[in-house]
Every structure is written in C-alpha cells, then in structure tokens.
Design brief:
Blueprint lengths: L7 E10 L3 H12 L5 E4 L3 E2 L4 E2 L10 E11 L5 E11 L6 E9 L2 H17 L5 E12 L4 E10 L3
Parallel strand pairs: 1-4, 2-5
Antiparallel strand pairs: 1-9, 3-7, 5-9, 6-7, 6-8
C-alpha cells in the first residue's frame, strides 16, 4: 500500500510576545517545544495505528509533519487562543481526524469548538467516536502576541 504508516503523535501548544509577528510566532513555537524543527503543515489525518505519546524532544533541524492552529494579535488586552483536537474512531483500523481552530476568545471556548469540529469530522464519515483528545492555549496580548497549538506526527522511533 502506498503511504502506509503508523508512528506516533502528540499534542502541544505555546504562546508568546514578540517585537514582530515572526518573533512572536517563534517564541510560541519554542514554548511548544517545536521551535528548532522545520514544521511541514499537514491537513487532518492521523494514520491508523499511530500511538498517542507525551510530547518528546525533537532533533534540531528535523522535518516534522504537524497540523496546527495559530493566531497573532497586536491589540493590547485582547485574549487570543489556539486549539487542536483529534477524534479517534471506534474502529482502530481507520484514521483519526484532526481539527484546528484559533480566534479571539478564551481557551475553554476555543477547545470546545475544536472538539465539536473533530467529532463532526468523524460523523461525516459515518464513524463512531471512541475518544477525543484536545489541547488549547490562550494569551492576553501585551503589545504583539501569538498563540499556537499543534498535533505533531512522528515516526515512532
């Protein structure tokens, strides 16, 4: 089968201030533990058999697939949040599905929205949900801030 994979995955998030948008994002990535790798944005599928693991150190410079949400604001006092969720189907031979969401607002609201989106993604495929894992982060902007959340895929080694 072309593209057969399993591996592992984890959820992570971070938020930071910076003097510029790229610097604020860099700070959020560092806080999330993915600031020294090359993220390659993926859409929304966790391969069947992928194991959920706790966030692990990644080798600097590694090319790492991730589905992520990010938001940056320059409005002092604004609360911004980013979240991701993974919906796992009851049938373990099928892929889990990822949803990402970011907006102005509190992390509890953003996390609830992204969890509903993940549940809907499985329902659209006529799949029963076994579990949903999610993570979100919020940040109150001082001058220029970024919030970032991701599902990071690895090869399992």
């Amino acid at each position: 089968m072309i593209g057969k994979a399993s591996g592992c995955h984890f959820l992570t998030c971070g938020a930071a201030e910076g003097p510029t948008r790229p610097n604020a994002l860099d700070g959020a990535l560092l806080q999330a533990g993915v600031g020294n790798v090359n993220l390659v944005r993926i859409s929304s599928v966790v391969p069947p058999g992928s194991r959920f693991v706790e966030p692990a150190p990644l080798a600097a410079g590694t090319i790492v697939p991730a589905a992520y949400a990010t938001i940056t604001s320059e409005l002092p006092g604004e609360v911004i949040s980013a979240g991701v969720a993974v919906a796992y189907p009851r049938d373990e031979s099928l892929p889990a599905l990822i949803m990402e969401y970011s907006a102005a607002g509190h992390k509890e609201d953003i996390e609830a929205i992204v969890r509903r989106m993940a549940q809907e993604s499985l329902a659209r495929r006529d799949q029963a949900v076994d579990d949903i894992r999610s993570i979100a982060v919020q940040h109150k902007v001082k001058t220029l801030g970024t919030a970032f959340a991701a599902v990071v895929l690895g090869d399992g080694n």
